[in-house]
Design goal:
Elements lengths: L2 H20 L5 E7 L16 E9 L6 E2 L5 H12 L6 E7 L5 H9 L1 H18 L3 E5 L9 H22 L5 E6 L4 E2 L2 E2 L2 H7 L2 E4 L28 H10 L7 E6 L1 E7 L11 E4 L6 E3 H11 L6 E3 L4 E6 L2 E5 L2 H13 L4 E5 L8 H10 L2 H28 L11 H6 L23 E2 L2 H7 L8 E5 L2 E7 L5 E6 L8 H13 L8 E5 L6 E5 L6 H16 L5
Parallel strand pairs: 1-2, 1-17, 2-4, 4-5, 5-6, 6-9, 9-10, 10-17, 18-22
Antiparallel strand pairs: 2-3, 7-8, 11-12, 11-13, 11-16, 14-15, 15-16, 19-20, 20-21, 21-23, 22-23
Bound molecules: 2-acetamido-2-deoxy-beta-D-glucopyranose (6 copies).
């Protein structure tokens, strides 16, 4: 009796896969998921993408093997299965970052046969172990310290290993991709173009951050598609790549989900190229699209963003703040450009900065044909129907079992104030839904700051003092202790924690955790000795201003 519905269910489950396989992957719609950002992998709208990059892994500086921080092992190993729920045909890649501080390690790795072998073997092994379909390398710059000849050799060997692993295991070959800059040559050092063409499935072009407020003393457009006055622009870069013999169908265009804020020297002069005195809003001026939108909403009474179709950029002016970013029109125009140029697709950086999937949907709409859209819809409907049937079955079977347990601190924060008290009290315990947010006991903070000693006091703001401290393992922290006389209630404190978590763009300070024991309200940040106290006070004041929701500009 049960066989008929079972058969139907199986049909429903497998039909989508068949449909997906019948349309070969031609247009790449990719995006980076930064594991240290606010967005949980389970919230990614993966139906809007064909490829997702899980970021970041590193290179171990002693063994040269692939390194995944222990706190990321679980989220990384679950990533592929998690994003497959909303898009069974999604392809995932593990992204490895070579930042400024890792560039020496990387140079040493690619310079020695045995080191290359350690990295290559371990990266392929790890990709398979965690269920990724490919590997990606980010941040390698053509500069003196990186030997481009060695990089070419490294790519040959990486591809050879991927080939032979696939032959021996019978599995589909892992994808190999890398991020390169806007132009193929920087300070007359060139990327190893031939090796990249030969060995990589494609190259992601970092088509943004051309002008930044910490460097350029004029309002620059950081990701202009064109520039009639000959400034850095994406189109000129792509042309250079093609001139160098790189094939268009191996280039994927990077789209920024962030912009930059400049402080105008003269608020009357606010066009592109106007004098600016430095960053606005955040310490380096960088702002995620989501933050830009909320900034305009909170402060920009009557401020409208202007879309300049000559450059293909948007900007807006609020007081003396001038913010440049890619809004929906710019994203659409860039995706159309990539199609017209015969590029392979686009790649967004990064997902957690999108506002309610607005930009991702715009890009998806341009990049997808009507037929593909209908197919996608059919797949979604079928998967949903199958999932609902399965779910109902599961509910019937496990009706007795209580499965809902507390989800820990983030969930707790979202609940009512009266339930603010954290359920975890150990300092080291971390929560799955917020792997980076820890709950500290009062005593551990007291010990770390030497009983809030005056030597450790970094300064005093209107909201209370900020202390420097050190955890038993040697990690340096900054503690913001809200004064008891401060009228910031638990509700506002809660807002601040979630807001700060939302602000965790690469250059902002990281909130490690909170302490709410004994009527205390303390925020614990990573202490970065090279950032000044002003920076911490600034972040705190900025948040405070945001919370007040009144124009203070
Ligand atoms: C790097 O590799 C060495 C040797 O295998 C190991 O002892 C060390 O723990 C690794 N470092 C990290 C940060 O995992
Ligand atoms: C991961 O480990 C690297 C190297 O040990 C370290 O530099 C980095 O800060 C860690 N990242 C996170 C998010 O913990
Ligand atoms: C790379 O190796 C060569 C010889 O094997 C050595 O002379 C050179 O200094 C090394 N370069 C770096 C950046 O370590
Ligand atoms: C980089 O290389 C160029 C030319 O090879 C040289 O003139 C310059 O001094 C080098 N810079 C550094 C920082 O090594
Ligand atoms: C660059 O790499 C090549 C090939 O791996 C090697 O022969 C050469 O010594 C390296 N040069 C430097 C300056 O590291
Ligand atoms: C775009 O900006 C440039 C430079 O400020 C200006 O000359 C041009 O008229 C603008 N175009 C549009 C369509 O706004």
């Amino acid at each position: 009796m049960a066989s008929k519905p079972m058969f139907l269910l199986l049909l429903l489950l497998f039909l989508p896969f068949k449909l997906q396989c019948s349309s070969p992957q031609t247009w790449i719609k990719a995006g980076y998921w930064d594991s240290s950002g606010e967005l949980p992998a389970s919230d990614i709208n993966s139906a809007l993408f064909t490829h997702l990059f899980c970021a970041f892994a590193y290179v171990n500086s002693t063994s040269y093997q692939l390194l995944i921080n222990s706190s990321k092992e679980q989220p990384f190993s679950e990533f592929t299965n998690t994003v497959k729920l909303k898009n069974p045909s999604i392809t995932t890649l593990l992204s490895i970052r070579v930042g400024k501080s890792e560039s020496t390690t990387f140079s040493l790795m690619i310079n020695q046969t045995s080191n290359r072998k350690s990295f290559i073997k371990s990266s392929v092994r790890t990709a398979r172990l965690y269920g990724f379909h490919g590997l990606d390398l980010v941040g390698v710059m053509p500069r003196n310290s990186t030997n481009m000849t060695s990089l070419g050799t490294f790519l040959d060997e990486w591809r050879a290993e991927v080939d032979s692993e696939s032959r021996n295991s019978g599995k589909t070959q892992l994808l190999l991709t890398m991020s390169f800059g806007r132009v193929p040559t920087v300070n007359s050092v060139s990327y190893p173009i031939d090796s990249a063409k030969r060995n990589l499935d494609w190259v992601n072009i970092i088509a943004y951050d051309y002008y930044v407020p910490t460097v350029d003393r004029f309002t620059g457009v950081h990701a202009a598609l064109y520039d009639p006055f000959g400034g850095a622009n994406t189109d000129a870069g792509i042309r250079e790549w093609l001139q160098r013999g790189f094939s268009a169908d191996k280039l994927v265009l990077g789209l920024p989900y962030h912009g930059f804020g400049w402080t105008l020297v003269n608020s009357g002069e606010n066009d592109i190229g106007s004098p600016a005195s430095g960053p606005a809003v955040t310490i380096d001026g960088s702002m995620g699209y989501k933050l830009i939108k909320s900034f305009i909403q909170n402060y920009g009474y009557g401020a409208e963003s202007v879309y300049n179709s000559t450059y293909v950029v948007s900007f807006c002016k609020i007081g003396s703040n001038w913010i440049n970013f890619d809004d929906v029109e710019a994203i659409k125009a860039k995706v159309s450009y990539a199609k017209a140029k015969g590029l392979l697709g686009y790649n967004v950086f990064q997902l957690s900065n999108d506002e309610n999937w607005l930009l991702s949907q715009a890009a998806y709409g341009i990049g997808t044909s009507q037929r593909e859209k209908q197919q996608q819809l059919l797949v979604i409907v079928l998967v949903t129907v199958a999932a609902v049937i399965l779910l109902m079955g599961t509910i019937v079977c496990y009706l007795q079992i209580k499965i809902f347990k507390s989800q820990g601190i983030l969930a707790t924060l979202k609940k009512s104030v009266s339930r603010m008290r954290p359920k975890i009290s150990s300092d080291e315990k971390q929560d799955n839904s917020a792997p980076n947010l820890q709950v500290f006991s009062f005593n551990s903070i007291k010990a770390a700051t030497d009983n809030f000693s005056s030597e450790n006091k970094l300064g005093q703001g209107g909201y209370g003092p900020v202390y420097k401290g050190m955890l038993p393992k040697g990690q340096q922290i900054a503690v913001k202790r809200l004064s008891k006389t401060s009228n910031q209630g638990l509700e506002e404190f809660k807002n601040e924690v979630t807001l700060t978590a939302r602000l965790q763009h690469v250059n902002l300070v990281r909130v490690m955790g909170i302490c709410t024991e004994r009527e205390e309200k303390m925020l614990i940040y990573d202490f970065m000795p090279n950032k000044s106290l002003d920076f911490y006070l600034f972040v705190a004041m900025f948040l405070q201003n945001m919370l007040r929701k009144e124009p203070t500009l």
